[in-house]
């Protein structure tokens, strides 16, 4: 019986084979600008070669025996630089032949490089992308993997960028190429593939990530992605958005640290807005870090240890102790302990 070779996963492929799957963003110029520059440079080479030939026209002879005009010189430069070489015009003097050796021949090589510049550019770009992928895969650490670049995923990334997270520290995983193109244009690292596959998540560096945001369109997909992510990384903080509250326990059992029910949250805000719209406005302000107020977390200072969080100058909402959030007012946090973190409201300058 003949055995089939084992399929090589994404992480087992060489870096050059990942070009198009893993994309490292960069600032790119318009291809039309590059093409225009190449065309103008090629025309300049033709005119320069024609001018050199025309200056030494006495050293050339054509089949008619007439003196070369500038049009003849341009014709000779064209067929010479393009390596066509009909032979109807040829250098006959030693000076003309020397000019062909030291001027026309290098121009011919340069002209051919310009003609195949697009192909060379593509090959060079692929090699450069492969090198960038190799370097990125060795260096990426403590980043955030965002699964899904829909409305929820984009909003989550906007919030992270508003909290001064660098775009290069965010990796987007999605199957939608158009969405990934938008993410890449925003300076984000992108991976094309299904996040339910462990190989795709490994390619996104999830095993070295500090946090994971799962913003899938379906709750069952979110459960599977969370299970796979937790299997690859036991320590990363996994935050999941789902549609139905009945699936919260499934996400908790799958390893999610935080679960956000998007439909219920939106519904509550809509209901509150009918009676107290100012409350909704304040909530939006707290969730928008660019201006106004924002909810933040900070370490406890030594001078604050032993005191009550209600007596601080900051408006403290809760205390994070041992990874658990305890709301202000509970007896456990009447006295701040060393190692606690404070969840408070800070003012953000407009």
TrEMBL record:
Q: How does it sit in the membrane?
A: Multi-pass membrane protein
Q: Which domain of life is it from?
A: Bacteria
Q: Which UniProt keywords are given for this protein, alphabetically ordered?
A: Ion channel, Ion transport, Membrane, Transmembrane, Transmembrane helix, Transport
The answer to whether the entry has keyword Transmembrane helix is yes
Question: Which residue ranges traverse the bilayer?
Answer: 39-56, 98-123
Q: Which GO terms describe its biological process?
A: monoatomic ion transmembrane transport
Subcellular location, in the record's words? Cell membrane
Q: Where is the RCK N-terminal domain?
A: 141-261
Q: Which Pfam families match?
A: Ion_trans_2 (PF07885), TrkA_N (PF02254)
Annotated SUPFAM superfamilies = NAD(P)-binding Rossmann-fold domains, Voltage-gated potassium channels
What Gene3D superfamilies does the record tag this protein with? 1.10.287.70, NAD(P)-binding Rossmann-like Domain
Q: Does the keyword Membrane apply?
A: yes
Query: What is the name of this protein?
Result: Potassium channel family protein
Organism annotation: Nocardia jiangsuensis
């Amino acid at each position: 019986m003949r055995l089939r070779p084992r399929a090589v996963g994404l992480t087992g492929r060489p870096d050059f084979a990942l070009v198009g799957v893993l994309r490292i963003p960069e600032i790119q110029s318009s291809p039309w600008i590059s093409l225009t520059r190449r065309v103008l440079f090629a025309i300049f080479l033709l005119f320069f070669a024609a001018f050199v030939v025309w200056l030494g026209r006495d050293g050339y002879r054509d089949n008619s025996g007439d003196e070369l005009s500038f049009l003849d010189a341009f014709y000779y430069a064209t067929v010479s630089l393009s390596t066509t070489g009909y032979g109807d015009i040829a250098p006959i003097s030693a000076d003309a032949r020397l000019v062909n050796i030291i001027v026309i021949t290098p121009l011919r090589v340069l002209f051919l490089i310009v003609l195949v510049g697009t192909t060379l550019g593509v090959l060079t770009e692929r090699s450069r992308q492969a090198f960038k992928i190799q370097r990125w895969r060795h260096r990426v650490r403590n980043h955030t993997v965002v699964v899904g670049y829909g409305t929820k995923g984009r909003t989550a990334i906007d919030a992270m960028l508003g909290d001064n997270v660098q775009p290069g520290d965010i990796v987007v995983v999605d199957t939608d190429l158009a969405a990934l193109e938008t993410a890449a244009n925003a300076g984000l690292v992108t991976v094309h593939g299904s996040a339910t596959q462990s190989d795709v998540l490994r390619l996104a560096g999830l095993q070295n990530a500090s946090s994971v945001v799962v913003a899938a369109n379906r709750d069952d997909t979110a459960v599977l992605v969370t299970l796979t992510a937790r299997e690859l990384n036991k320590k990363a903080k996994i935050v999941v958005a789902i549609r139905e509250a009945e699936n919260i326990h499934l996400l908790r059992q799958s390893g999610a640290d935080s679960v956000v029910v998007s439909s219920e949250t939106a519904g509550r805000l809509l209901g509150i807005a009918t009676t107290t719209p100012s409350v909704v406005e304040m909530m939006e302000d707290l969730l928008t870090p660019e201006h106004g107020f924002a909810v933040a977390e900070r370490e406890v200072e030594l001078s604050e240890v032993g005191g009550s969080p209600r007596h601080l100058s900051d408006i403290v909402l809760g205390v994070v102790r041992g990874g658990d959030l305890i709301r202000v007012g509970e007896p456990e946090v009447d006295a701040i302990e060393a190692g606690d973190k404070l969840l408070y409201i800070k003012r953000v300058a407009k």
